[in-house]
Amino acid sequence: MKAPRVAVITAWMVALGITAAALVMAFVPWVQTANGDGMVVALDPDDRTADVSSLVSGRITEWYVKDGEQVAAGQPIARVVDLDPEYLTRLAAERAQIEAEIAAVTQSRATAQLDVNRTAALFREGLIARRDYELAQIKVAEGGAKLAESRAKLQRIDVQLARQSSQVVRAPRAGRIQAVNAGLSGSVVSPGSILATVAPETAERAVALYIDGRDIALVRPGRHVRLEFEGWPAIQFSGWPSVAQGIFDGRVRAVDPTSGSGGLFRVLVEPDPAKKPWPDLRFTRLGARVRGWIQMETVKVGYELWRQLNDFPLEFSKEIKASIGGKDGKGGSADGPGKDDDATVRKAGKPK
Protein backbone atom coordinates (compact mmCIF):
# COMPACT_ATOMS: atom_id res chain seq x y z
CA MET A 1 0.00 0.00 0.00
CA LYS A 2 1.43 3.34 -1.05
CA ALA A 3 1.59 6.14 1.56
CA PRO A 4 -0.42 9.26 0.81
CA ARG A 5 1.50 12.03 -0.89
CA VAL A 6 0.63 14.55 1.84
CA ALA A 7 2.08 12.26 4.53
CA VAL A 8 5.31 11.82 2.59
CA ILE A 9 5.73 15.56 2.13
CA THR A 10 4.98 16.18 5.79
CA ALA A 11 7.50 13.55 6.87
CA TRP A 12 10.19 15.07 4.66
CA MET A 13 9.44 18.56 5.95
CA VAL A 14 9.66 17.37 9.57
CA ALA A 15 12.91 15.55 8.88
CA LEU A 16 14.42 18.56 7.12
CA GLY A 17 13.25 20.86 9.95
CA ILE A 18 14.81 18.64 12.60
CA THR A 19 18.04 18.43 10.60
CA ALA A 20 18.14 22.19 10.08
CA ALA A 21 17.44 22.82 13.77
CA ALA A 22 20.20 20.41 14.77
CA LEU A 23 22.66 22.08 12.40
CA VAL A 24 21.72 25.52 13.70
CA MET A 25 22.14 24.48 17.33
CA ALA A 26 25.44 22.77 16.61
CA PHE A 27 27.18 25.30 14.36
CA VAL A 28 25.48 28.73 14.50
CA PRO A 29 27.19 31.11 16.98
CA TRP A 30 25.33 33.09 19.63
CA VAL A 31 26.63 36.04 21.64
CA GLN A 32 25.70 35.74 25.30
CA THR A 33 24.53 38.92 27.01
CA ALA A 34 23.86 40.21 30.51
CA ASN A 35 20.85 42.45 30.02
CA GLY A 36 19.29 45.06 32.25
CA ASP A 37 17.27 48.24 32.32
CA GLY A 38 18.53 51.64 33.34
CA MET A 39 18.51 55.34 32.55
CA VAL A 40 20.61 58.13 31.09
CA VAL A 41 22.67 59.92 33.75
CA ALA A 42 25.34 62.63 33.87
CA LEU A 43 28.91 61.60 34.63
CA ASP A 44 29.96 65.00 35.98
CA PRO A 45 28.12 65.95 39.22
CA ASP A 46 28.06 69.57 37.99
CA ASP A 47 25.96 68.42 35.02
CA ARG A 48 23.21 66.91 37.16
CA THR A 49 19.98 68.52 38.28
CA ALA A 50 20.72 71.09 40.99
CA ASP A 51 18.41 72.31 43.75
CA VAL A 52 18.47 76.04 44.51
CA SER A 53 18.05 76.46 48.28
CA SER A 54 17.54 79.41 50.55
CA LEU A 55 20.53 80.20 52.77
CA VAL A 56 18.56 82.22 55.31
CA SER A 57 15.15 82.11 56.91
CA GLY A 58 12.72 84.77 55.83
CA ARG A 59 9.96 85.70 53.43
CA ILE A 60 10.03 85.52 49.63
CA THR A 61 9.38 89.02 48.34
CA GLU A 62 10.13 88.60 44.64
CA TRP A 63 10.63 85.91 41.99
CA TYR A 64 12.94 86.61 39.06
CA VAL A 65 12.27 83.42 37.02
CA LYS A 66 9.41 81.19 35.86
CA ASP A 67 9.07 77.48 35.10
CA GLY A 68 10.85 76.51 31.89
CA GLU A 69 12.91 79.71 31.72
CA GLN A 70 16.58 79.46 30.71
CA VAL A 71 19.04 80.93 33.23
CA ALA A 72 22.76 81.65 33.33
CA ALA A 73 25.12 80.85 36.18
CA GLY A 74 24.71 83.45 38.94
CA GLN A 75 21.39 84.78 37.62
CA PRO A 76 18.98 85.82 40.41
CA ILE A 77 16.22 83.33 41.20
CA ALA A 78 14.38 84.92 44.11
CA ARG A 79 14.77 87.50 46.86
CA VAL A 80 14.36 86.43 50.49
CA VAL A 81 14.21 89.04 53.26
CA ASP A 82 14.27 88.49 56.99
CA LEU A 83 10.99 88.48 58.88
CA ASP A 84 12.35 91.43 60.88
CA PRO A 85 12.98 94.25 58.37
CA GLU A 86 15.27 96.08 60.85
CA TYR A 87 17.44 93.05 61.53
CA LEU A 88 20.28 94.13 59.23
CA THR A 89 20.28 97.63 60.71
CA ARG A 90 20.56 96.26 64.24
CA LEU A 91 23.36 93.92 63.21
CA ALA A 92 25.28 96.84 61.70
CA ALA A 93 24.82 98.88 64.89
CA GLU A 94 25.94 95.97 67.04
CA ARG A 95 29.02 95.53 64.87
CA ALA A 96 29.94 99.20 65.26
CA GLN A 97 29.55 98.88 69.02
CA ILE A 98 31.82 95.83 69.15
CA GLU A 99 34.44 97.62 67.03
CA ALA A 100 34.41 100.51 69.50
CA GLU A 101 34.75 98.01 72.34
CA ILE A 102 37.75 96.41 70.63
CA ALA A 103 39.41 99.82 70.21
CA ALA A 104 38.87 100.63 73.91
CA VAL A 105 40.18 97.27 75.08
CA THR A 106 43.23 97.60 72.81
CA GLN A 107 44.01 101.03 74.26
CA SER A 108 43.49 99.81 77.82
CA ARG A 109 45.74 96.82 77.20
CA ALA A 110 48.48 99.05 75.79
CA THR A 111 48.28 101.26 78.89
CA ALA A 112 48.45 98.20 81.14
CA GLN A 113 51.54 97.02 79.27
CA LEU A 114 53.24 100.35 79.95
CA ASP A 115 52.32 99.96 83.62
CA VAL A 116 53.92 96.50 83.62
CA ASN A 117 57.14 97.93 82.21
CA ARG A 118 57.26 100.66 84.89
CA THR A 119 56.51 98.29 87.78
CA ALA A 120 59.14 95.85 86.45
CA ALA A 121 61.80 98.56 86.65
CA LEU A 122 60.67 99.60 90.13
CA PHE A 123 60.56 95.98 91.27
CA ARG A 124 64.14 95.39 90.11
CA GLU A 125 65.23 98.44 92.18
CA GLY A 126 63.32 97.14 95.20
CA LEU A 127 60.96 100.11 95.39
CA ILE A 128 57.70 98.10 95.12
CA ALA A 129 56.54 94.69 96.27
CA ARG A 130 56.29 91.67 94.00
CA ARG A 131 52.52 91.69 94.41
CA ASP A 132 52.22 95.10 92.74
CA TYR A 133 54.24 93.82 89.80
CA GLU A 134 52.08 90.67 89.49
CA LEU A 135 48.86 92.73 89.66
CA ALA A 136 50.06 94.79 86.69
CA GLN A 137 50.73 91.59 84.71
CA ILE A 138 47.25 90.29 85.57
CA LYS A 139 45.68 93.46 84.12
CA VAL A 140 47.51 92.86 80.82
CA ALA A 141 46.29 89.24 80.71
CA GLU A 142 42.72 90.32 81.47
CA GLY A 143 42.93 92.89 78.68
CA GLY A 144 44.09 90.19 76.25
CA ALA A 145 41.17 87.93 77.23
CA LYS A 146 38.65 90.75 76.74
CA LEU A 147 40.19 91.57 73.37
CA ALA A 148 39.91 87.96 72.21
CA GLU A 149 36.29 87.78 73.38
CA SER A 150 35.39 90.99 71.54
CA ARG A 151 37.02 89.76 68.34
CA ALA A 152 35.06 86.51 68.57
CA LYS A 153 31.83 88.53 68.90
CA LEU A 154 32.82 90.57 65.86
CA GLN A 155 33.43 87.42 63.85
CA ARG A 156 30.00 86.03 64.76
CA ILE A 157 28.37 89.30 63.71
CA ASP A 158 30.25 89.20 60.38
CA VAL A 159 29.01 85.66 59.75
CA GLN A 160 25.42 86.72 60.41
CA LEU A 161 25.81 89.73 58.14
CA ALA A 162 27.27 87.55 55.37
CA ARG A 163 24.33 85.16 55.63
CA GLN A 164 21.75 87.90 55.65
CA SER A 165 23.43 89.59 52.71
CA SER A 166 22.76 86.39 50.70
CA GLN A 167 19.11 87.35 50.41
CA VAL A 168 19.19 87.20 46.62
CA VAL A 169 19.26 83.48 45.75
CA ARG A 170 21.15 82.84 42.51
CA ALA A 171 21.39 79.96 40.04
CA PRO A 172 24.38 77.70 40.77
CA ARG A 173 24.88 76.87 37.08
CA ALA A 174 23.49 77.55 33.63
CA GLY A 175 20.44 75.57 32.59
CA ARG A 176 16.67 75.67 32.53
CA ILE A 177 14.28 76.10 35.45
CA GLN A 178 12.65 72.69 35.78
CA ALA A 179 10.43 73.53 38.75
CA VAL A 180 9.69 76.40 41.09
CA ASN A 181 9.01 74.55 44.31
CA ALA A 182 8.13 77.31 46.75
CA GLY A 183 4.78 79.08 46.96
CA LEU A 184 3.71 82.56 45.99
CA SER A 185 5.55 85.73 46.91
CA GLY A 186 5.23 86.24 50.64
CA SER A 187 5.80 82.59 51.53
CA VAL A 188 7.98 81.97 54.57
CA VAL A 189 11.04 79.74 54.05
CA SER A 190 13.73 78.36 56.34
CA PRO A 191 17.44 77.77 55.67
CA GLY A 192 17.80 74.85 53.26
CA SER A 193 14.31 75.16 51.77
CA ILE A 194 14.38 74.25 48.06
CA LEU A 195 13.13 77.18 46.03
CA ALA A 196 13.70 75.87 42.49
CA THR A 197 15.36 73.13 40.46
CA VAL A 198 17.80 73.86 37.62
CA ALA A 199 18.31 71.20 34.94
CA PRO A 200 21.36 71.37 32.64
CA GLU A 201 20.93 71.57 28.88
CA THR A 202 24.39 70.20 28.11
CA ALA A 203 25.95 67.24 29.89
CA GLU A 204 28.48 64.45 29.46
CA ARG A 205 26.10 61.51 29.38
CA ALA A 206 26.41 57.94 30.52
CA VAL A 207 23.98 55.08 31.07
CA ALA A 208 23.39 53.42 34.43
CA LEU A 209 22.29 49.81 33.85
CA TYR A 210 21.10 47.57 36.69
CA ILE A 211 22.24 43.96 36.27
CA ASP A 212 21.24 40.81 38.15
CA GLY A 213 23.74 39.50 40.68
CA ARG A 214 24.02 36.16 38.85
CA ASP A 215 25.75 37.82 35.89
CA ILE A 216 27.55 40.75 37.54
CA ALA A 217 30.63 38.69 38.49
CA LEU A 218 31.50 38.29 34.80
CA VAL A 219 31.06 41.96 33.87
CA ARG A 220 34.37 43.78 33.53
CA PRO A 221 35.25 47.38 32.54
CA GLY A 222 35.76 47.65 28.81
CA ARG A 223 33.05 45.13 27.88
CA HIS A 224 31.05 46.08 24.80
CA VAL A 225 27.43 47.10 25.41
CA ARG A 226 24.47 47.46 23.05
CA LEU A 227 21.91 50.11 24.06
CA GLU A 228 18.29 50.73 23.08
CA PHE A 229 17.10 54.20 24.06
CA GLU A 230 13.49 54.88 24.94
CA GLY A 231 11.55 56.43 22.07
CA TRP A 232 14.21 55.54 19.47
CA PRO A 233 12.99 53.00 16.87
CA ALA A 234 15.08 49.85 17.07
CA ILE A 235 15.09 46.13 16.28
CA GLN A 236 17.34 44.08 18.55
CA PHE A 237 18.72 40.54 18.25
CA SER A 238 20.86 40.12 21.35
CA GLY A 239 22.64 37.01 20.07
CA TRP A 240 23.30 38.39 16.59
CA PRO A 241 24.30 42.03 17.08
CA SER A 242 25.20 42.53 13.42
CA VAL A 243 21.52 42.10 12.48
CA ALA A 244 20.19 44.69 14.97
CA GLN A 245 18.99 48.09 13.77
CA GLY A 246 18.67 51.34 15.72
CA ILE A 247 20.95 50.07 18.51
CA PHE A 248 23.83 52.17 19.83
CA ASP A 249 27.18 51.07 21.21
CA GLY A 250 28.87 51.69 24.53
CA ARG A 251 31.43 50.16 26.83
CA VAL A 252 31.46 49.40 30.53
CA ARG A 253 33.10 52.22 32.48
CA ALA A 254 32.65 50.96 36.07
CA VAL A 255 30.80 48.34 38.12
CA ASP A 256 29.52 49.12 41.61
CA PRO A 257 31.07 46.88 44.29
CA THR A 258 27.77 46.57 46.20
CA SER A 259 24.17 46.12 45.15
CA GLY A 260 21.38 48.62 45.52
CA SER A 261 18.21 48.31 47.55
CA GLY A 262 16.63 45.96 44.98
CA GLY A 263 19.57 43.55 44.88
CA LEU A 264 20.69 44.74 41.44
CA PHE A 265 24.18 46.05 40.68
CA ARG A 266 24.72 49.34 38.86
CA VAL A 267 26.95 49.30 35.77
CA LEU A 268 28.03 52.62 34.28
CA VAL A 269 28.26 52.61 30.49
CA GLU A 270 30.00 55.35 28.52
CA PRO A 271 29.89 56.03 24.76
CA ASP A 272 32.28 54.03 22.61
CA PRO A 273 34.41 56.58 20.73
CA ALA A 274 35.09 54.07 17.95
CA LYS A 275 31.37 53.70 17.15
CA LYS A 276 28.64 56.08 16.00
CA PRO A 277 27.68 58.68 18.61
CA TRP A 278 24.57 58.41 20.75
CA PRO A 279 21.45 60.40 19.80
CA ASP A 280 21.48 64.11 20.54
CA LEU A 281 20.59 65.28 24.06
CA ARG A 282 17.32 66.61 22.63
CA PHE A 283 16.18 63.04 21.96
CA THR A 284 17.78 61.15 24.87
CA ARG A 285 17.54 63.48 27.82
CA LEU A 286 18.87 62.84 31.31
CA GLY A 287 16.60 60.36 33.04
CA ALA A 288 15.38 58.69 29.84
CA ARG A 289 14.97 54.93 30.16
CA VAL A 290 17.42 52.60 28.43
CA ARG A 291 17.64 48.85 27.91
CA GLY A 292 21.12 47.42 27.54
CA TRP A 293 22.85 44.17 26.65
CA ILE A 294 26.41 43.66 27.88
CA GLN A 295 28.06 41.32 25.37
CA MET A 296 29.89 38.37 26.87
CA GLU A 297 31.28 35.16 25.31
CA THR A 298 30.28 33.64 21.94
CA VAL A 299 28.81 30.12 22.16
CA LYS A 300 26.68 27.84 19.99
CA VAL A 301 22.91 28.22 19.86
CA GLY A 302 22.39 24.72 21.23
CA TYR A 303 24.57 25.38 24.26
CA GLU A 304 22.78 28.68 24.94
CA LEU A 305 19.38 26.93 24.85
CA TRP A 306 20.68 24.25 27.22
CA ARG A 307 22.09 26.93 29.56
CA GLN A 308 18.88 28.93 29.73
CA LEU A 309 16.72 25.84 30.23
CA ASN A 310 18.90 24.89 33.21
CA ASP A 311 19.09 28.51 34.46
CA PHE A 312 22.90 28.43 34.54
CA PRO A 313 25.05 31.58 34.61
CA LEU A 314 26.94 32.91 31.61
CA GLU A 315 30.03 31.25 30.13
CA PHE A 316 33.31 32.12 31.82
CA SER A 317 35.84 34.02 29.74
CA LYS A 318 39.34 32.64 29.22
CA GLU A 319 40.77 35.27 31.56
CA ILE A 320 38.42 34.27 34.38
CA LYS A 321 39.12 30.59 33.85
CA ALA A 322 42.84 31.33 33.99
CA SER A 323 42.42 33.29 37.22
CA ILE A 324 40.44 30.39 38.71
CA GLY A 325 42.77 27.64 37.51
CA GLY A 326 46.08 29.39 38.14
CA LYS A 327 48.56 31.26 36.00
CA ASP A 328 48.91 28.37 33.57
CA GLY A 329 45.16 28.52 32.90
CA LYS A 330 44.82 24.71 32.96
CA GLY A 331 42.81 24.46 36.14
CA GLY A 332 45.47 22.48 38.02
CA SER A 333 48.47 22.90 40.26
CA ALA A 334 51.90 21.33 40.60
CA ASP A 335 50.42 18.57 42.75
CA GLY A 336 47.79 17.50 40.25
CA PRO A 337 44.56 18.58 38.57
CA GLY A 338 42.33 21.04 40.46
CA LYS A 339 39.04 19.32 41.23
CA ASP A 340 37.60 22.45 42.84
CA ASP A 341 38.35 24.44 39.70
CA ASP A 342 36.62 21.88 37.50
CA ALA A 343 33.61 21.96 39.77
CA THR A 344 33.51 25.74 39.53
CA VAL A 345 33.50 25.63 35.76
CA ARG A 346 30.71 23.04 35.80
CA LYS A 347 28.66 25.25 38.07
CA ALA A 348 29.12 28.05 35.55
CA GLY A 349 27.15 26.02 33.08
CA LYS A 350 29.81 24.41 30.86
CA PRO A 351 29.31 20.64 30.44
CA LYS A 352 32.38 18.42 30.74
From TrEMBL:
InterPro entries: MFP. Residues 323-352 are annotated as: Disordered. SUPFAM superfamilies: HlyD-like secretion proteins. This is RND transporter.
